[in-house]
Amino acid sequence: MAEVVYALCAVTSLVCAVLLGRAYRQSKRRLLMWSTLCFVGLFLNNVLTFVDLVLVPAAMDLHWLRSSVGFIAVALLAIGLVWETK
Q1: What is the residue extent of each domain of the chain?
Q2: How high is the pLDDT of residue 58?
Q3: Of the candidates 1, 9, 65, 80, which lies 20 to 30 Å from 39 by C-alpha distance?
Q4: 3-class state of residue 5 by DSSP
Q5: How confident is the model at residue 60, as a pLDDT?
Q6: What is the pTM for the complete model shown?
Q7: How does pLDDT run across 5-33, given as a tens digit for each residue?
């Protein structure tokens, strides 16, 4: 059951990234670009979570890679929010 949740989270993040990217192409608002980049990072984070917890053996740990990708994704959104409020 957990595998389904990991996959659904990845799909949801990808759909959000695609929708935000389409909105950015239409309006050219930079905050939408930053949000798109964040959700692409969150999609990668969810894919890495699925790979780490479902596909690879327990002896191999991708925790630091997953955490780094998640941190970068959220940092991109924070940078975009700060940058666009100036």
Answers
A1: 2-85
A2: 79
A3: 1
A4: helix
A5: 85
A6: 0.90
A7: 999 999 999 999 999 999 999 999 999 99
16, with CB counted inside 10 A (0-12, 13-18, 19+), is middle
Is residue 77 within 8 Å of residue 45, measured between CB atoms? no
Cβ–Cβ under 8 Å, residues 85 and 34: no
Q: By the 8 A CB rule, do 49 and 4 touch? A: no
Q: What is the pLDDT of residues 36-57, one digit of tens each?
A: 999 999 999 999 999 999 888 7
Give the pair of three-digit tokens for residue 29: 């608002």
Helices (H), 51-62: none
Other beta carbons within 10 angstroms of residue 1's beta carbon come to: 4
61 phi/psi in degrees, rounded to 5 = -115, 120
CB atoms within 10 A of CB 37: 20
